[in-house]
Amino acid sequence: MSKATSLTFNGIIPLIPDVLIDNFETIHANSTSRNNIAKYCIISHAHCDHYKGLSGKFLKSKAPKFILTKTTKHLILCHTNTPTNIEKNLTNAEFAEMNVTKELEPGLNYTFIPNYHCLGSAMVLIKDLRGGKALSVLYTGDARFEYGVIYSIRTSTILSPYIFGSEPLNMLYLDTTFSYRNRNIEILDNLEGIYRLASLIRQYPIGTKFRFLDTIYGFEEVWVKIHDIFASKCNFYFSKNVSRWIEKVKLSNNWLYDDLEKNVNMVDKIYNLVPVKRDKFDYAFYIGEIEECGISDASSIITIKHAIDMTKTEYMEVYLPREINQFEELNCQNQEKEIWNGKFWFNNGGRKQLLNFNYIRCKQSFMFLPLHIKFIYSRHSSYSESKNFVKLFKNVQDIYPMTESFDTWQKGFNMKNFYGINNSSYDLASNDKYGSCNLELRSDDNNLRIIDYWGSSSDRCSDVLNSFNSVSTEVDFDFDPIGQVIRGKETQLSRKRKEGVALKGRVLKTQRREKRRRIERFLNNVDTVGPATFNPQKYVRCLRLDHGIDRELIRSYSLEEEEIFDNKNVMKLKSNLEDILIDINFM
């Protein structure tokens, strides 16, 4: 599985160059390529990869006007180490209201439309009438276009001219976070994922304590839904940081947009959870830093983490409670707390693996319950969901992806194949920047094939399991499959490296060290039938060949020479380990 990426959009809208969205680095006072045109800076929501450059210094004579929701401003300022420049730059910000069209200057209007990604988040419609010809641009921001969201957008009076075709949509900037995956997968409905989680929680003994590892804005929906399911039988404990931003948002009076927003982002219910503590309760849930929640011993606390790229087979056979006869080996780690370490076999796409997990034993049911729970939840759309969103509009003239890379381009991700847009500005620009996309990959219908990991479709077959992280062990919890922790420097380095720039320094060394440790943790947690060493031949990744190959080095990684096709611009490298690619100068 490829690594998830954050926003790569540079913020510039060529059709309306005096407006920037979610990236303001080009107008810094010390920028070598300063943008002297932009006057308005729009922030779609409070995730840190969507206000790049906000901490910079701007020339007083050319300081831009920032536009965002009041909720988004409060959430940004709630970050513990907020740079002073951010607070200064947002001092005179203009607050947007949902579904209310406002004028930036005569002939230039904008409208914020709720997209339910997190509190205060919005799509942004910009309409420019100044040149005599109307130009309309829709920026989706991050969004999960589930059925309820699609229905809400379809009934929007603001977007109805574009939905029913009376006006063209000149440019659509679309959330394409899904593009980093090697497969276009269907993602389980968020509500179903939450109810599966609740069903699993019920199997734990009364008095069990749980901790949510996901605390980024947008996961409050999970907390509230879990509280509603268990009604008055649970207590919630929040860290100081989480409590502070909940209180700030509650007081902002800017979060109630419509009925769907009330259902998804129920801040009033979250706010009421903070002070309520019951003497008698079945379960306790902790959110935030463990020390700030008042926990002295976390050894028996059940951690809960979201996942996306997980098959039904993996979920059912790896992450659910087990009976004693389902283990190959059991060892008691703590007799008083009934903590056990268990090993069991898992058939991962025809390759047997001996997995190693920790459990607590329930004295009532005698079941072994996992210390680490995973549940399916996504804040970003799948390919099919994004396609359904695009189909809402009758006349979309151009689409530009908000998340893309050299790697996704080489795998065949382009607007012509995925959305039917001929000669899109992205395809033309990427052809110039990255080179021609490999024709074999570009014309491959498998790039557009949608695989259902959870349905009854024939696409849900065994080969979808055969990937490096298909079995996500408990040691994987330190990194997020969809970019919870945004590493701006790492993203920039990755992009530059893929463009052939040789980079050195502390950041790159740290990045390589983290990759090695991640691989080591995986290998320590998986015992493979046969040789003890990890065999990269099991995994496939396609990369562009720009130069000669050291065949001896390739053989040292158990890659066969016949796998290399000199007459093509593609190498089938049977590995997902980026260290190997770095060593042979591919990255």
UniProtKB/TrEMBL annotation:
GO function term, MF aspect, one: 5'-3' DNA exonuclease activity
Source organism superkingdom: Eukaryota
InterPro entries: RibonucZ/Hydroxyglut_hydro
UniProt KW Nuclease keyword: yes
SUPFAM superfamilies, per database record: Metallo-hydrolase/oxidoreductase (SSF56281)
One GO term of the biological process aspect: telomere maintenance
Keywords: Exonuclease, Hydrolase, Nuclease
Protein name: Metallo-beta-lactamase domain-containing protein
High-level lineage: Eukaryota, Fungi, Dikarya, Ascomycota, Saccharomycotina
